[in-house]
Structure formats: C-alpha cells, structure tokens
Amino acid sequence: MKTDVANRYIWFKQEILNVNDAKINVLAPTSQFGLNVFEGIPCYWNETQQQLYAFRLADHYKRLAKSAKLLQLDCKYTKEDFEKALVDVVRANEYTENVSVRQTLFVDGFGSWGSDGPVEMFVAPIPRGNTSAEYNKQGLNCCVASWRRISDNTLSPRIKCGANYINSRMGQREALRNGYDTCIFLNEAGKVAEGPGSCLFLVKDGRLITPQLTDSVLESITRDTVIKLAEELGIEVQERSVDRTELYASDEAFLCGSAMEITPILSIDRYKYEYSEESLTSKLLAKYRSVVSGRDSKYQGWLTPIYK
Ligand SMILES: Cc1ncc(COP(=O)(O)O)c(C=O)c1O
C-alpha cells in the first residue's frame, strides 16, 4: 500500500519499518559525534516506461565504501547488500514519482568517536518535493561565505560524512541570515571550492569552468555527469583553481548535485548572471533530465531499474 511521507517505510538494521519506529540510541557515536557516512541517491520516475530508475548507483556505492574505508569503519555490509536494501525499501513504499534516497552507514552501540563499530545501516527514501528548500528552487541568489570550506588536512571534503555538514551549515545559515538562498565557499587558499551541498560550475565565453577536485570539493557524481554530458555536447570543460573575481566575471553559473540537479545561479554577492532558455545552463539541464529519467538510450548503463 502507498505510504504518506510521515509514515513512509525505512530500511533499518535489516528490517523494513515505519520511519517512526526506527530508533537510534542517544549515546551511539552517530548521535554524539555525527559518526556516519552517507549518500543521497536520486531516483527518477519514467511515466512512459512505468519504471523508477536509480541514477549511477554503482558510483554512489563506490563512494560510500570509500568514505567508510577512509574513516576506518568496520562495515559488514557489501555493495550487493547496499543495493538490495535500497530496492526493497523503495518497492515497499511503491513510489511512482521522483525520490531521493538517503543511505547511511552509522556507528551504533555505546562507543566513542574513535570506535570502528558496530556499523549499522539505514536506507530512507523521500519524495523529491519534500527535500530542503534550497534543493527545490528554480534559481539561486548566493553569497560567498565568510567561512572557509574544510580542507583535506583537517576534515576532508572527499569523505561524505555527517560531521562535514557542520561546516556546510555555518555557510548556509550565514547565507539565509543575510537574505540569500545559499552560499559558495572558498577553500583555505582563498580559491573557489563548492556550495554547502553541491558543486559549482561557471560559464565563460562558451566554456565550462569548475574547481578541481583537490581544491576542497566533494568528488561529486553530478559534477562528473555534467563534465561527461558537456563533452558529448561539444562544450569545453576546464577543471582548475578558480579565483573569487572569476565568479563575478563569468556569464553564467550553476550549482549541481544529486539533490540540486543543475540549478542556475541568478546572482553571487548581488553580481547578476544571464539565464534564459538559450543559455548553456538550460541546455545542460535539459540533457541531464533526459539522461536521468531514461529518455536517452546512450546512458542506460547509469540507470538501475527498481521495479521488475
Ligand atoms: C558538499 C557537497 N558537494 C557536492 C555535492 C554533490 O555531490 P553529488 O553530485 O555526488 O550528489 C554534495 C552532495 O552530496 C555535497 O554535499
């Protein structure tokens, strides 16, 4: 039976439960220290095919396993377990719309921030419209955060762990407090890094420019998708360090991520950008939507069908 969002099913420690019945001990390291690693996995409904597709699932699981390895979590679940749990719980909810799935490995039990286990998992799908406000806007007014992005020498942005999002929070709260939708972080060297939950692209003279992966950014799957789609569309892409003034001097800009998809930036620190149906950002967004929803046969290899 279809569920309402407040009573949806969640996969939790090998069981499928009502989300309200999934309980974690307050003393677990995940509760106390944000000791968890996770993925946000987008699934797209194709009405014609009556099919829901998980996008780049294998790449999400590769990154999840890498995050767990870097934090030395002793995880008993395999990539096959990850996928089966996701498929089972999305099917249990009978979703026939776009959903976003939070898949988290967390340190349970009574240990400390230094514990390597016991590692448990939950998988929680949610209809896309119910995710955070900044992920559901048509265009974004941004500021450059006064806080710097975490760095590989302190808390690596390469590891997608809960604790990293406290840095994201500082920038996001500052942006909201000052009347913006979201922020862009500079890294410790003062070069442009990323958004609090997304990667950044600029468009200048018909070329795409994005900060390189060693400039304090997550190894984003959407960033990689955008680069590959741009190549197919014959658009040159530069991955390199980006100066702050390049932000203001570019023609277009957008943020991208599994939750954000490709969302145009309307302004940064009140410097305005072009955005229209003809802009490069619009072309990339149209291409992205057709790929993720299974309307582009060339990219079937990136899609995992949820229903039989
Ligand atoms: C800090 C940060 N950067 C970038 C991204 C985009 O990553 P992906 O495209 O893999 O969702 C995210 C989203 O998870 C993020 O949290």
From TrEMBL:
CDD domains: PLPDE_IV (cd00449). It catalyses: L-valine + 2-oxoglutarate = 3-methyl-2-oxobutanoate + L-glutamate; L-isoleucine + 2-oxoglutarate = (S)-3-methyl-2-oxopentanoate + L-glutamate; L-leucine + 2-oxoglutarate = 4-methyl-2-oxopentanoate + L-glutamate. One of its GO terms (molecular function) is L-valine-2-oxoglutarate transaminase activity. This is Branched-chain-amino-acid aminotransferase. Pfam families: Aminotran_4. Its cofactor is pyridoxal 5'-phosphate. It comes from Selenomonas caprae. InterPro entries: Aminotrans_IV, Aminotransferase-like, B_amino_transI, BCAT-like_C, BCAT-like_N, Class-IV_PLP-Dep_Aminotrnsfr. Keywords: Amino-acid biosynthesis, Aminotransferase, Branched-chain amino acid biosynthesis, Pyridoxal phosphate, Transferase. The keyword Transferase applies.
